[in-house]
Write a structure and sequence with these properties.
Radius of gyration: 18 Å
Number of domains: 2
Shape: globular
CATH superfamily of the largest domain: STAS domain
Structural class: alpha/beta
Strand order of the largest sheet: 3-4-5-6-7
Oligomer: single chain
Helix content: 40-55%
Distance between the termini: 42 Å
Length: about 150
Amino acid sequence: MPLADLLTSAARGVHSSRIKGFTRIEAVLNQVENFIPVLRLGPSVFVSVPAELSDSQARFLQETVSHRLSKADGVRGLVIDVSALSLIDSFAAKILGETASIASQFGVKAVLVGIRPAVAMTLIELGVDLRQVETALTLERALTKLKIRIVEVE
């Protein structure tokens, strides 16, 4: 059962008060729907794009990354992992490109990692220009482009 359905069924019978035009349940469901993992590791921020990226999630991703980069010190790289995406539309592609551009405004180099062949072909067919965005097939290559090394400690 999806998490949103579990939350809805768990919330039945619970008194809900209004918060900025939404009930508590609606607010929680909205947060669950828009959840995008954004992690900081050393001088890098990692974003994992969900398999099905809705327009609201794409905007939420952009806002979350922008906010995170504006508050973070010492971030040199942003890795946007799109390996879970099997399809992409022009709006999502535009948002990902804008997110990379926003990162550069903060002095952060962005790398799009894990673009599937079908997604790459769709981007070309849509005429989406991501030439200003660095890309890498794997996380290791993305980290190399960002000049970040993972050091194994014995």
